[in-house]
Design brief:
The protein is mainly α. It is built from ten helices and no strands. The protein starts with 9 loop residues before the first helix and ends in a 17-residue tail after the last helix.
Length: about 200
């Protein structure tokens, strides 16, 4: 396989999310640790999503730092509801909501690639972004991302960068998609009846 190191990325991503116990309330620390595993995928997508990675780093760290006093995601949202800060910028709850959107973005992107071998990375990414992260971004961010997507690598280049073949990526992606979707669906119930505002600045959430 030359310099390609098959399986160095997606299996670790899947293990990170499979390691989050979903039998009871979701652990804040386990969730924050799992989110760390999605950060490298934004590097593979190039400069267009550099802003997303920097945002996610800060949001993930805020949850990890809060985990000692708010051990579950239920506690995170409950505390902000009590304080009236669920939708406040940089609150742990709003940061959690943004992280869930980012996880859904990666899951959707991988689903799109797995569903159709003819699907380009640009098409897979554009569709995933439109249905997950875009609703939380203002016009300026959406416009910048749309333009920047033309700098995305090819499908083959992306797969090579994550050390996967078409076949191995399909298998490994399925495990991550299953585990992450379970977590996202459970965590999203915490925001029932809450309308999150869009980003109010050019590049931040």
């Amino acid at each position: 396989m030359g310099t390609q190191q098959e399986g160095i990325f997606l299996p670790g991503l899947a293990r990170a999310f499979e390691g989050v116990d979903t039998r009871g309330d979701l652990s804040t620390l386990q969730f924050a640790k799992a989110c760390e595993a999605i950060l490298p995928v934004f590097d593979r997508l190039g400069a267009v999503f550099a802003f997303a990675k920097s945002e996610l780093i800060a949001k993930r760290e805020s949850l990890e730092q809060a985990s000692s006093r708010l051990p579950t995601l239920n506690a995170v949202v409950a505390a902000d509801k009590k304080a009236g800060t669920v939708t406040t910028k940089n609150s742990c709850s709003r940061n959690l909501h943004r992280l869930l959107s980012s996880i859904s973005f990666i899951s959707s992107l991988l689903q799109n690639l797995a569903a159709d071998k003819a699907c380009t990375l640009h098409t897979a990414t554009a569709s995933a972004y439109s249905s997950t992260m875009a609703p939380m971004h203002n016009f300026f961010v959406r416009t910048a991302v749309k333009g920047g997507m033309y700098t995305l690598p090819t499908r083959a280049g992306f797969l090579q960068s994550i050390g996967e073949t078409e076949e191995s990526a399909r298998v490994h992606s399925a495990k991550f998609i299953s585990a992450s979707n379970t977590i996202v669906q459970k965590a999203e119930t915490l925001f029932a009846g809450t309308s999150m505002p869009k980003s109010d600045t050019t590049w931040t959430g």
